[in-house]
Amino acid sequence: MQFDFRALDGTGKLQSGTLEAAAQAQVVEALQAKGWVPMEIAPSGDGSVHGIGWNWRKARNRVRLPELVAFTEQLSTLLSAGQPLDRALGILHDAGGNPALTAAVGEVRDQVRGGSALSDALGRHPQMFSSMYCAMVRAGEAGGVLPQVLARLAEHLARSSEFRRNVINALVYPVILLATVLLSMAFLLAYVVPQFADMYANLHAELPWFSKIVLGLGMAVRRWWMVIAGIVFAALLVFNFWLKQPASKRLVEQRLLSTRWIGPLLAKMEAERYLRTLATLLASGVHLVQGLRISRAVLSNGQFLDSAARVDDLVRSGTRFSDAWSSEPYFPRLPLQMARIGEEAGELDRMLLKASDTLAADIRTRLDRVLAALVPAVTVLMFALIGAVVMSILVPLYDLTSVIG
Question: Which residues contact 179 (CB under 8 A, 6 or more apart)?
């Protein structure tokens, strides 16, 4: 059976391809043997890795972050209470919940009973348990502090989930408002405006230039709405395909990072995830070099991935973490100053965690400011557009009533 995969190689570059194996676990083992970090693995032909668009199997088998947090917290609690690992996994399996997670926990339990380490059993399910997750579990097993490490991991995942939820919640109202604007304009142009256009045509009324433009646009929307919708849909597909190309994606990422207002915010969001992951790994006993390699998996921006790969090489050659990142132009400066203090005091993990908290607070403040300005701007835009359409209809009507009167 063939499997498509995406993985980070030893230099941090994203690799993809196809491997022949009897099961997904063998693909994971083959990639890990090469020193690669599996990112996504799926049977060839189902579209999960290389395909474009929605994949129903992947959506059905998806494990949400809050569910993973709950599983990690419960496993930590059971182990802290003195339950054997296989029995704790059996209790969580019998508790049910997400079918995909329940099935994975059952397989992990069986592998642990067969003599596998928990980290190795979890590593056979890379779509649910990331390389960071497995690395922390492995460090907890080696140090004999697995319950404590799982509790720290659950806290890290919970913070990441809360941060993501706050960002999404903050964007909900502006998105709804913008959708309302678009739907209102579509209704006015497709239904209301053509009614008045037919009336003015029957009256042979002389219309102002802006009324002619709006009425002509409304008639075009009514007559050709299917063609317009098809063109828009095709344009979105083409843009989506173009955006998936590596060169195009890198170009967009570089432009966004260079933008005055958006760039610093995106950079801080990337740095916050990266530093929090690295701090959690270091606090769990993972070596800095290994932690740097694993932390690259949380980066989504190609510019940052390239920078992280260069930093890894510098740290391996003896350069301090803070000095290695200081030469990268997009990385925020304040966390590096805090990291330098942590290196000098021998508390790099604690200072990186504080730096990520500082970045998270600054991101929330910036998002609040952006949204505070965005909502009034969208509201003004809505009233301006709708007002222009309404005025283009009512002004000729007012002129006609004046003439008749």
Answer: none
Cβ neighbours of residue 301 closer than 8 Å, sequence gap 6 or more: 253, 257, 266, 270
Residues 6+ apart with CB under 8 A from 29: 124
Q: How confident is the model at residue 209 (pLDDT cuts 50, 70, 90)?
A: confident
pLDDT band for position 404 (50/70/90)? low
Partner residues linked to 20 by β-bridges: 2
In the block, tokens 């903050």 appear at: 170
Q: Please, are residues 326 and 317 in contact by the beta-carbon 8 Å criterion?
A: no
Q: Mean pLDDT, the chain, as a whole number?
A: 80
322: Cβ contacts below 8 Å, ≥ 6 apart: 336, 337, 339, 340, 343
Those residues with Cβ within 8 angstroms of residue 302's Cβ, 6 or more apart along the chain or in another chain: 246, 249, 250, 253
Across 278-287, 343-352, 376-385, which has the greatest mean pLDDT? 343-352
**Cα 123 to Cα 19: distance, rounded to the nearest angstrom:** 17
Which domains does the chain carry? 2-60 (no CATH), 65-129 (1.20.81.30), 152-405 (1.20.81.30)
- On whether the CB atoms of residues 357 and 338 are closer than 8 A, the answer is no
- pLDDT score at 323: 92
